[in-house]
Fold each of these.
Amino acid sequence: MAQNSLDYNSISELPERFWDKVNKTDTCWLWQGKIDDGYGRFPFKGTTYLVHRLVVAVLKEKLADGTKVDHICKVRNCCNPDHLRQVTPSQNTKGNKKQVDSTLCVNGHPLTGPNADVHISDRRTRHFGVEPSITCRVCNSTKRLSLLEKEEELP
């Protein structure tokens, strides 16, 4: 499992197989590889790294000791460097409040009526008990179509 003590700053370039697992949408770059608790994980040279921290360290800036990487877009598997920023643990906790307008997805589509997919998970969170998650059908369809197109391109 990835940890903050890993030396993310020692990696200078991401291999092609990393980019094979990234679905670049109009806004977010969605990680399609291994995901744990919503966050992308990437095995590299015998170590598993958190994708969002790896992207910041390689494409944006060195990671400072003790910082967290915040998803400005609030999409945990997003690895678009423009959506990621280093923050203190305190800032990260304050920034993780519920989305202000929970009737819209991160791409602005309504999360109501026929556009909302509701998922009930047996997974319990420490503070909220069992909580349903609502995802956007438009974004999910776009993601599925993109994956199908990638599969069709393979020889």
Note: The radius of gyration is 16 Å.
Amino acid sequence: MKEITIVVPARNEEKRIAACADSLPSSKFISQHANLIFVIDGTDNTAKILEELKKRKEASFEIHSYDSRLGKGGAVEEGFRLAKTGFVGYLDADTSIGVGKLEQLLRKLLEEKPAALIAVRKRICGRGALRSLAARAFNSYANLLFNLGIGDTQCGCKFFERKAIVPLLPLCTKGFAFDVELLWRLKKSGAPIRQFPLETEEKQGGTFGPLDAPRMFWDLLLTRFT
């Protein structure tokens, strides 16, 4: 029986989803130890591409599509509820974290069995100065508000013991800032959070827009003080 479920939230990812669905099963370790669930709430051909790929390659990953907008956090929650394994986690669809690095993280997860093991980007190859500055500002703001002590709250690669994370759901934050609320609730529960530093690569084509950044700052204020 597999021990890990990897949830991939995918909204309007038709340009990048095939690379993600191809790369993860290419690792023998990941195929042996992890189930893969795609949660889709977009309006493009992401689900169709996955269905065709699954049929053509006889892949075993699950595809769950929703007509209503879930938000990234909401999509991850849905995946966690569907999971049956002892460990659950989520991974961005952009393949910015190579399969080799992901495999290293998952090996550590199974060997040491921490309540939480999260990727922390020590370097992002190809990221522009303005985007880097904004990311550092948000991380500082999040750590100041919630006293997390986390080097990178927003890396889309986090894994948890299912028994530690499911009782903390549902989250109030359904958008891109959900990571912070999740980590905050986990810390308040007393569960230790382990950090796994790695290098990633900046990828183009995501759905993060100019209005999402101020919304994330606002969501954190609402989460902290309401």
Note: Residues 129-146 form the longest helix (18 residues).
